[in-house]
Amino acid sequence: MTTNNKEALLQVRELCVEFPTRHGVLKALDRVSFDIAPGEILGVVGESGAGKSLTGAALIGLLEPPGRVSGGEIWFEGQRIDNLGPAAMRALRGKKIGAIFQDPLTSLNPLFTVGQQLIETILAHLPLNAAQARERAIDLLRQTGIPAPEARIDQYPHQFSGGMRQRVVIALALAAEPKLIVADEPTTALDVSIQAQIIQLLKRVCRQHGAAVMLVTHDMGVIAETCDRVAVMYAGRVVELGPVQQVIHCPAHPYTIGLMGSIPAMDEDRERLQQIDGAMPRLNAMPSGCAFHPRCTQALPRCKEALPPLIDVGATRTACWLHHSEARA
Amino acid sequence: MSALVQVKDLAMRFDVSAPWLNRVLERKPRQFVHAVDGISFDIPKGKTLALVGESGCGKSTVARLLVGLYKPSGGSVAFDGRDTREWFGAKDSLSLRRRLQMIFQDPYASLNPRWKVAEIVAEPLTEQGLLKEPNAIRARVAELLSMVGLNPLDGAKYPHQFSGGQRQRISIARALATAPEFLVCDEPTSALDVSVQAQVLNIMKDLQAKQGLTYLFISHNLAVVRHMADQIGVMYLGRLVELADKAELFANPRHPYTRMLLDAIPDIHLTGRDRVAVQGEVPNPLNPPSGCSFHPRCPHANERCSQERPALQEFKGIRVACHAVAEGRI
Questions:
Q1: What is the per-residue pLDDT across A7-39, written as a single tens digit (0 to 9) for each?
Q2: For a surface tag, which of A105, A321, B98, B258 has the fewest beta carbons within 10 Å of its beta carbon?
Q3: Are strands B214-218 and B48-52 parallel, antiparallel or unpaired?
Q4: How far away is chain A from the Cα of B223, in angstroms, using its nearest Cα?
Q5: Residue B277: pLDDT over 80
Q6: Partners of A76 in the beta sheet?
Q7: How far B112 CA sits from the closest chain A CA (Å)?
Q8: How far is Cα B225 from Cα B233, in angstroms, rounded to an integer?
Q9: Which chain B residue is nearest to residue A193, measuring alpha carbons?
């Protein structure tokens, strides 16, 4: 593993997150590593409870207590950010790293107009006066495709529809020209026709602003049309990481294969969907070895005993003993 | 052979007027939302009709009208040839209620958290007076649980001890308790993860093949609908804009809204492709556009579309409500 890749904007190394509880410490993220290059869109996909959102929250320093980073490092533009204090993290968040959350209604304050919220963010991070900030806020709303931004800027969030609100949230995330945007399920709460608009918008504005994106979603379709690379997560670990085309067309990990097979396809008719029996293990009952082995149809004896490392398999990186020749023997 | 379920000009109107005092003092008019506005379809026995559309188009209202949770404000629903409006009020309404059941979207909200699973599944049996003997009830519950792939011993647990997919199986078991012929499924898998969704969809298909069930399947996910349905109805603002066989609808969508929906689906096999951007959003149902309610978003709209509401007409086996299709413009 390359430890000091100069080109990467963000490097996550062996990140662990745990939750201390009365019944012991639960490990929610276990040695998650990935890089994001400048301007790249990295998708993070997985089912509920796989740790996708937690990875995003850890990056922007918004882990809910008692959750805590218990190991590993996060490097952003050559600076280590996982050990920054709250004040330094706050300065970084919003300025260098923007965030978009799932529900646009709860990420906007209902008591302030859209303009007040945008201007507050701009003034907090950029050296502009109030009039310039308002100018910039209107410009941001225009870029995100809100009609008549001069009038809409003085309206409250409840006066916007769901899709329009998500555009405002994207404008808010872009307000200080961040280098990285963490988008956590940005289109899950929206209808398909609106989803298409928002995804296109996100792609376009990130390209214009040169921002890299970490797109967290459970929707493989959104990943396929948006991302450059994708990380598949299962039970707090990255099980496969590689270019989108590669992961979708020739997945290497049995979980990814099952996941792709269980998606009803639009272009072929199948009598039955391929299903993965069972459910994701709970954090307090994590199986030994590879967490996927109880559901895996090809599990080897080795899978129960030891955790597979993430290794290069063709163009992707996969954590599975099936790709180790000595484990098969 | 006539269809098992026949829906004709079904309409549901909700009164959303301001309170009486406000209406008097502020001179506000009465206001109604036409959630379902004159839709007609048939579902033959053993088949699946799917309704698709975006939030607020009236899909769930149709589901609730069919099982009698709402009383229609217009039109009729006939089940097995008999009008359900009259049947639900008649003395023998139980004989209808046991023949149609519903599966709800959210398996976290539709199961009573204080009841054991066995009690939940047994409730329809005791409520309908189908079985009285405790041993018989226990045996039937065990049979139902194994039918949906759960362990009969799971009956002693509470709903919170199950995952989302398992809970949805419990609600399927409960719906099957009275051996219904017709199941109304309102977004049964949209709260589930894809791998679990596949499990539930497979169970539903197997049950249909084994027991000859008839489904009304409601979903906003066209890929799921394509997997499950025989016939598909596309709804927009309370009206049916297209009704066609599955193969025909996907191969040759006629209505501009159907085309838009199909274009909007992210396709996992065409990576890097830009979806066709659809302009605009669903209008406010309180104040729907005049004429065809889709015309403000439609690329083919003309003068006539903004004035005259198109009726559902048949074109080569497909039923479409669109002036542009009728005039041969598209």
A1: 789 999 999 999 998 888 899 999 999 999 998
A2: A105
A3: parallel
A4: 5
A5: no
A6: A10, A79
A7: 22
A8: 10
A9: B264
Q: Check residue B320 and give its pLDDT.
A: 93
In residues, how long is chain B?
330
Confidence check: pLDDT of B271 > 70: no
CB-CB: which of B54, B199, B268 is closest to A191? B54
Q: Which two tokens stand for residue A245?
A: 């085309």
pLDDT score, position B243: 95
Which of B59, B193, B249 is the best substitution to test chain A (most A C-beta atoms within 10 A)?
B193
Chain A contact for B327 (CB, 8 A cutoff): no
User: In this complex, is the C-beta atom of B287 within 8 Å of any C-beta atom belonging to chain A?
Assistant: no
Q: For residue A92, give the nearest of A59, A50, A138 by alpha carbon.
A: A59
Beta carbons of B116 and B157 less than 8 angstroms apart: yes
Cβ separation of A267 and B165 shorter than 8 Å?
no
d(CA B8, CA B83): 11
pLDDT over 90 at B157, yes or no: yes
- What phi, psi does B256 have (nearest 5°)? -55, -35
Quick: pLDDT tens for A222-240.
Answer: 888 889 999 999 999 999 9
What confidence tens digit (pLDDT) does each residue in A177-187 have? 899 999 998 88
The verdict on pTM exceeding 0.95 is no
Closest approach of A195 to chain B, Cα-based (Å): 8
pLDDT value at position B269? Answer: 65
Query: What pLDDT, on a 0 to 100 scale, did the predictor assign at position A329?
Result: 59
State the ipTM, two decimals. 0.77
B222 contact A CB<8A? yes
* Superfamily of chain region B5-99+180-326: P-loop containing nucleotide triphosphate hydrolases (3.40.50.300)
Is the pLDDT at B252 greater than 60? The verdict is yes
Residue B309 CB-density burial (10 A; 0-12 exposed, 13-18 middle, 19+ buried): middle
Mean per-residue pLDDT, B37-59: 91
How far A273 CA sits from the closest chain B CA (Å)? 6
Burial track B48-67 (b if 16+ CB lie within 10 A, e otherwise): bbbbbbbebbbbbbbbbbbb
- The count of C-alpha atoms lying within 13 angstroms of the C-alpha of A119, restricted to the half-sphere facing its C-beta, is 15
Q: Are B218 and B50 in contact (CB under 8 A)?
A: yes
Whole-number Å distance between alpha carbons of B16 and B126: 37
Comparing alpha-carbon positions, the chain B residue that sits nearest to A192 is B264
Instruction: Quote the CA–CA distance of A269 and B245 in Å, as a whole number.
Output: 14
* Surface of A (212-241) touching B: CB under 8 A: 218-225
Residue A77 tokens read as 């533009």
Min Cα separation A194/chain B (Å): 7
Cβ neighbours of A266 in B, within 8 Å: 222-223, 226, 250, 265, 267
Please indicate if any CB of chain B lies within 8 Å of the CB of A95.
Answer: no
pLDDT tops 80 at residue A263? yes
* Contact between A77 and A88 (Cβ < 8 Å): no
CB neighbour list of residue B254: distance below 8 Å, 6 or more residues apart = B242, B244, B315, B318, B320, B322, B325, B330
Instruction: For residues A266 and B114, give the distance between their C-alpha atoms in angstroms, rounded to a whole number.
Output: 41
pLDDT of residue A1: 40
Reported as a pLDDT band with limits 50, 70 and 90, residue B50 is very high
Per-residue pLDDT band for A3 (boundaries 50, 70, 90) equals very low
